[in-house]
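Example record for the data management plan.
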Amino acid sequence: MSLPKPAMRGLLSKRLRFHLPIAFAFSLVAAVAFKYTVTEPRKQAYADFYKHYDSMKEFSAMREAGIFESVRPTGK
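Corresponding structural encoding:
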């Protein structure tokens, strides 16, 4: 009794027919999971931040701290 010969002809195409749809499905699931676990909360955090952001108040605070060289604080 001898071992059967391995099927070498068409092995790549046979394996790809099985593994390629699985790889595409896995990548699609990973992309959707990334979108809803990372990007959507990040966009919501930015929207919440800029909803209450006052740029003039921030500028005044930086001016009073002396960060800018071209704008003097109001007391000086």
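Summary line stored alongside the record: The chain is about 70% helix and 0% strand.
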